[in-house]
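Aim 2 progress. For Cyclic nucleotide-binding domain-containing protein, the working sequence is reproduced below.
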Amino acid sequence: MEEMHHGLRKSIEKFVTLKDEEWEEIRFAWKSFSFHKNEPVTSMGEVEKYFYYIDNGLLRGYFEKNGQEYNMGFSYNGEFSGVYDSLIFQKPSDWNVEALEDTVGLKLHHNQLVELQERFPVIKEWLFKFNQQVMFGLGIFIRSLLADSAEEKFERLMTQSPHIIQIVPQKHLASYLGMTPETFSRMRKKWAT
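Predicted structure tokens for this construct:
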């Protein structure tokens, strides 16, 4: 558990610096969690109650339409996850989060997140900077979805996150990039040569 808290602190401190006395209080609000492979974390229609820090494992965000799944993103070691808009606004989620493999980490309840922001200005600053990163990444993702060719999308993924191909199943990466598994396989073979 101490290692998980250490990883959480490192992830938070990518954005802000925590004083030891702040950290000692903040860390106790985070509780451990574990999900088994293919276990739902949050389902469409539920209100997200937790903000998750993944110590080890893999979660995916996705929605379904006309019987087809569309992957929106993946979170793994050292990252945060959950249905963030549902968490912040406490409204029902319009997408799902599930574990793609056994996943463990720490979770922070919405009420405690609100309380920590009120008590510690550094947490408010952290969330502000975290939100900036999320919005920046979302802008890049939307632009790529709308304007990039399949090859450009694949090349961006392999340039920015080459390790992801070892973690996430090919069918989910293909969906995330908005292409068929066959197109993804062709791109992967071409990239390897």
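The CA atoms of residues 117 and 124 lie 5 Å apart. This observation will guide construct design in the next reporting period.
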